[in-house]
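Example A, followed by Example B.
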Amino acid sequence: MLHAWHDVSPGNDLPRDFQAVIEIPLGSNVKYELDKASGLLRVDRIIHSAVYYPANYGFIPQTYAEDDDPLDVLVLCQEAVQPLALIQARAIGLMTMMDSGASDDKVIAVATNDPEFNTYVEARDLPPHRLLVLKRFFSDYKQLEGKQVQVDDIRPAYAAITVIEKALARYQKERAKLRAGDARSTVTLSEPMSLKDSGK
């Protein structure tokens, strides 16, 4: 079966332009997350706060970020995009947050096939309110879980490009190990449960 992280191409115009896999549609308050073992999506949680994702959220395939996950991307678009859909995007900025003491980079991008957004080349060109909404969402969305998130100022496109390049290179270096680890997890998950294990 096709694996959304390992088997989908990130595109031919890297690093600024790429193909993203969407996990969470614009407007959702359900946190879907890639299940690394199967390549499918799982429901991680329902957001505790009264907020919703301000952009389509996903990852760039065949990347491996510093948080040991595929590199996160926020894709600005007029419409909500279905989970596991592929979308062409262009990096216009980078948002870095400290989440429970760990650094977490998120590429800010625009959908290149969306006429309302595809002329933007830098995050600073967006309406200031939209940038505030992006930052505020990530500052607030875990508050009712008792977790603190600190969001840095949004940086220019070149910062995102540097992070993308590093994540692509890190994935290539670790690819065999990542795929082997996911294959082992899949075998474990697919083993039938005995009656003893099920508690019956």
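Example B, a separate protein, is given below in the same form.
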Amino acid sequence: MVNRRGESRLGCLIVLLIVAVGAYLAVDFGEAYFRYYQFKDAMGQEARFATTKTDVQITERLSALADSLELPPGAELVNIQRSPTVITISSDYDETIKLPFKKERVIHFHPMAASRL
């Protein structure tokens, strides 16, 4: 049998292997960023309705959400700053992603939301 130009026996398998490894790594990074965006969205919602809630109520709700999203320690420490016209809610935390070959990648997240009062 004659090989046609561009044809190989392992070409498709190598591409599939690369795609599988990429998908495997993307899942962990995707979950971390998805949780970050959920937490940031909740902060924005709390900031929009801050005129009807106290700082303690906002902190309790966001701390409970950080726990339910299984965010790392430190995410539940929410910083709230109020001025006569603006409220700013923020937090800082580091998420550790486990990679193959016993490597780790630490990603720093700083979700923040602000709204007029």
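On Example B: Residues 11-48 form the longest helix (38 residues).
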